[in-house]
Design goal:
Layout (H helix, E strand, L loop, with lengths): L1 H9 L3 H22 L3 H18 L9 H19 L9 H5 L8 H7 L3 H8 L3 H12 L4 H8 L3 H32 L2
Length: 188
């Protein structure tokens, strides 16, 4: 069914292209949200990516899967938009500063108040590329082959990077756990 829509869209059929947009937008949207810092930027990136898809359809090789090709275009558009961005700075007001964690809190105290804090801290210790890989795999639910196509790298490279990233995350979580145990044992 999708192959027919793709073929018709390649010939300039806008109704078929609209059907492709409706069919593939949810997955493309998840990827754009992961790669961009806010919703408006993700929307802009996705709109521009669909324009790129429309322009590129005549050259699209129908022997290849469509979804990875589309997601690679979304990823490229997001990266191009991120390069053009400047990072806004803002002073820490009292309201924002009040929401920060107290550095005197032990890991156990923080983890008791916020259960996902250990995972968030561990993720924060990973490189941005590693976090992006995890988000593409587990939030956007991309297959490993789709991630390979997305980055334009071999599947074996994706597998090894994911393995190393998960090992680093596991090590980070393990290294945090003894701190929590040590501090809880000293308070008894």
């Amino acid at each position: 069914m999708h192959e027919e829509m793709i073929r018709r869209a390649q010939q300039g059929d806008t109704v078929a292209f609209r059907a492709l947009v409706e069919a593939y937008s949810p997955g493309a949207w998840r990827v754009a949200q992961i790669l961009m810092t806010d919703r408006e930027q993700a929307e802009d990136a996705l709109q521009e990516a669909w324009i790129d898809v429309w322009r590129g359809l005549p050259r699209y090789d129908a022997a290849r899967p469509f979804r990875p090709w589309l997601l690679a275009i979304v990823g490229n558009r997001c990266r191009m938009l991120r390069r053009r961005q400047t990072i806004p700075t803002q002073s820490l007001g009292e309201d924002l500063a009040d929401g920060l964690l107290d550095p005197r809190d032990t890991y156990a105290e923080v983890a008791a108040r916020e259960p996902d804090v250990a995972l968030q801290n561990a993720l924060g210790c990973l490189a941005a590329e590693a976090r992006e890989l995890l988000k593409l795999r587990y939030q956007a639910e991309l297959e490993l082959a789709e991630i390979a196509e997305f980055y334009g790298i071999p599947l074996s490279t994706v597998k090894s990077r994911l393995y190393r990233t998960l090992a680093a995350l596991r090590a980070q979580l393990t290294s945090m756990a003894p701190t929590a145990l040590d501090s809880s044992e000293t308070t008894r």
